[in-house]
Write the structure tokens for this entry.
Amino acid sequence: MAEKISVFRRSVNMAAIQSGDTKPEMIVRRLVYRLGYRYRLHRRDLPGKPDLVFGPRRAAIFVHGCFWHMHPKGCPDAREPKSNTGYWQPKLRRNVERDKENIRALRRDGWSVLVIWDCETKDAVQLTRRLITFLGPTLSNSVN
Ligand SMILES: [Zn+2]
């Protein structure tokens, strides 16, 4: 058990090393790769073209922009636009509806789905924990 924890901690620390690229999707991709998971990008044959797809695990990850996908609950990046609301409101709400439908469709087909919000990619340690919890052990995590 203790051994397991130390391996986990080492993975977290290694993965949390700051990367130069701050684009949220790139942060997630790089972390996931460093942790030893392999994935495919934007599979067109799946609902919503998930950003990262882990075929053998039947798992998919979306990295959602807080503004575009209306991250709720006090996210500072998700404030609704004050001007041109007649244009933005329906557009953003449509995004949210589509997201829900895509996730529902994926889950119906037996996929596990994780949504990571842009603002959640700033805490690399927390993010790493979530990724490992969601994806389970990798080959490289279970060896040595
Ligand atoms: Zn957010």
Remarks:
- Helices lie at 2-16, 24-34, 85-108, 124-135, 139-142.
